[in-house]
């Protein structure tokens, strides 16, 4: 039995509320169980210097956790004067993932920055950030299209992410913190709406895993991502 009482292939309750901030071109609050992330997408009519005069657009991301997102207060990284390696790794993952669902030629020479701020953490914050970040990105692109600033839709597919792992010897979907902290294997899958893989992060956390177990995790991830994509589609409808 999982600590939450969920079935092995059951997601935590998912909700995505859009339009939660007044100023961002796209925004949403995604809740995956007790993990809550505020995602905003900001449009700028410029690109980084290495893309200037190329005609290519850019999507990037920033990620952070509020001090009391976890059980004990964390010091703000701004107060420490630098980002942790974990934060840098996660925001690069979010940026890579979202760019995989964008036609940068169709986007044109402009940048969209997706900010993902974790309000409350209970495992799977990077996956929730990617899933919610795509919704914020979609809403920002919708504004570009409504204004006639792009000729065709730059978004080529949904992008969503889910965690899986081997907990108490069983492959399970969508780890919460009690499972994540005890899992023998921990994996994150980033996929498109058409079930194409963008990135897979999988590691043994005290116990190795077999090829068959990895295949089971992949099957769980495909199921989970399809349900997340359905939630995204409902949110932006």
From TrEMBL:
InterPro entries found in the cross-reference section: ExoRNase_PH_dom1 (IPR001247), ExoRNase_PH_dom2 (IPR015847), ExoRNase_PH_dom2_sf (IPR036345), PNPase/RNase_PH_dom_sf (IPR027408), Ribosomal_Su5_D2-typ_SF (IPR020568), RNase_PH (IPR050080), RNase_PH_bac-type (IPR002381), RNase_PH_CS (IPR018336)
PROSITE patterns cross-referenced by the UniProt entry: RIBONUCLEASE_PH
Record bears the keyword Thylakoid: no
Keywords from the UniProt entry: Nucleotidyltransferase, RNA-binding, rRNA processing, Transferase, tRNA processing, tRNA-binding
Molecular function GO terms recorded: 3'-5'-RNA exonuclease activity; tRNA binding; tRNA nucleotidyltransferase activity
SUPFAM superfamilies according to UniProt: Ribonuclease PH domain 2-like, Ribosomal protein S5 domain 2-like
Top-level lineage group: Bacteria
Keyword Protein biosynthesis belongs to the record: no
Domain Exoribonuclease phosphorolytic: 10-140, 159-224
Binding site for phosphate: 86, 124-126
Assembly information from the UniProt record: Homohexameric ring arranged as a trimer of dimers.
Annotated function: Phosphorolytic 3'-5' exoribonuclease that plays an important role in tRNA 3'-end maturation. Removes nucleotide residues following the 3'-CCA terminus of tRNAs; can also add nucleotides to the ends of RNA molecules by using nucleoside diphosphates as substrates, but this may not be physiologically important. Probably plays a role in initiation of 16S rRNA degradation (leading to ribosome degradation) during starvation.
Family of this protein: Belongs to the RNase PH family.
Record-linked HAMAP family: RNase_PH
Protein name in UniProt: Ribonuclease PH
Provenance organism: Rhodophyticola porphyridii
């Amino acid at each position: 039995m999982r600590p939450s009482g969920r079935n092995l292939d059951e997601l935590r309750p998912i909700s995505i509320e859009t339009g939660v901030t007044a100023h961002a071109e796209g925004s949403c609050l995604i809740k995956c169980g007790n993990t809550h992330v505020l995602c905003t997408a900001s449009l700028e009519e410029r690109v980084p210097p290495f893309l200037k005069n190329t005609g290519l657009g850019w999507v990037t991301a920033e990620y952070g956790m509020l001090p009391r997102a976890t059980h004990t207060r964390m010091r703000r990284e701004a107060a420490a004067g630098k980002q942790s390696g974990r934060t840098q790794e996660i925001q690069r993952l979010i940026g890579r993932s979202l760019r995989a669902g964008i036609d940068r030629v169709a986007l044109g020479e402009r940048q969209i920055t997706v900010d993902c701020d974790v309000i409350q953490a209970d495992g799977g914050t990077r996956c929730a950030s990617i899933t919610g970040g795509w919704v914020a990105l979609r809403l920002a692109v919708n504004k570009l299209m409504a204004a006639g600033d792009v000729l065709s839709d730059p978004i080529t597919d949904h992008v969503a992410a889910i965690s899986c792992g081997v907990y108490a010897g069983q492959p399970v979907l969508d780890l919460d913190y009690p499972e994540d902290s005890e899992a023998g294997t921990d994996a994150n899958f980033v996929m498109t709406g058409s079930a194409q893989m963008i990135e897979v992060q999988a590691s043994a956390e005290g116990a190795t895993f077999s090829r068959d177990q990895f295949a089971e995790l992949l099957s769980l991830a495909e199921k989970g991502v399809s349900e997340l994509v359905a939630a995204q589609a409902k949110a932006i409808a």
